[in-house]
Amino acid sequence: MSATKQQQAPPKPLPFQWQFLAGAVAGVSEILTMYPLDVVKTRFQLQVGTGGVDGYKSIGDCFKKIIKNEGFATLYRGIIPPIMVEAPKRATKFASNEQYTILYKSILGPDVNMQGLAIMTGVSAGITEAFLVVPFELVKIRLQDKANAGRYNGSIDALSKIVRAEGPLALFNGLEATLWRHAMWNGGYFGCIQGVRNAIPEAETSNGKLARNFVAGAIGGTFATMLNTPFDVVKTRIQNQAKGSHMKYNWTLPGVAMVYREEGFRALYKGFVPKVLRLGPGGGILLVVFDTVSALIRKHVLLETA
């Protein structure tokens, strides 16, 4: 058994265009499955304190009030910007992670600690990804906010009104907070996946490999969400501040300190449960779909043999 395992080398990275395709399919699959939880997460993160009479007390209460007061379709309000960016975003996540792996191995040598390498490549991939997603995240947040229900008629309308009223650079409000959020999530996600894979024995069957990947991805997604939620709370509040309003939140770390000081430690984890319910299983879905699509490309397009 040990000799067999020694002979099994990890497959060479796919060419960039196929990494991009596999990441895109994985990302769109995850968002179509889990998006309503993202709406609920944003509502909690924008809620200061308990939100008063109309505040949300739990995930179930939030779902119930949204559907009752605003209609079922509201659970998918703002989905167009993330779908538009999801393909390049997830493709960038996986493709840049693999490219950074090649780069850092060439610099640090083949004997580098694999978990440390996974964390470094994850953080680097997260920073790369963050620059891409900021404008889409801002439009999505504005659309998801209940207070903006009558202000924007859709994604294009929201985009044009934000640019007209606040200027094109407003689309990059929250960039610094987004860098924190994505660096922390990707570093935690890929680093944890490497640790879980080291701890779980190799699977002998295709179903076993899928299960192993799902478990690793789900644990990685959960751990990464624990790391980055405080930064996500502040990012959401920064991006929801329109020009001309009181700009209470500006920079990430002072914003984290302000939320903690004014609302307590628990406020830094507002929206954590719907977020982790999305990104825990969502991380598993991402990894399984990415690896499955990559395997299909290797077999049927690149004609590689196992």
From TrEMBL:
InterPro entries, per the entry: ADT_euk_type, MCP, MCP_dom_sf, MCP_transmembrane, Mito_2-oxodicarb_carrier
Solcar repeats: 14-103, 113-199, 208-296
Predominant subcellular localization, coarse grouping: mitochondrion
Cellular component terms (Gene Ontology): mitochondrial inner membrane
Gene3D superfamilies: Mitochondrial carrier domain
Superkingdom of source: Eukaryota
Subcellular locations according to the entry: Mitochondrion inner membrane
Gene Ontology biological process terms in this record: mitochondrial ADP transmembrane transport; mitochondrial ATP transmembrane transport
Keywords: Membrane, Mitochondrion, Mitochondrion inner membrane, Repeat, Transmembrane, Transmembrane helix, Transport
Molecular function GO terms recorded: ATP:ADP antiporter activity
Membrane topology per record: Multi-pass membrane protein
PANTHER family on file: MITOCHONDRIAL 2-OXODICARBOXYLATE CARRIER
Family: Belongs to the mitochondrial carrier (TC 2.A.29) family.
Protein name: Mitochondrial carrier
Native organism: Mortierella polycephala
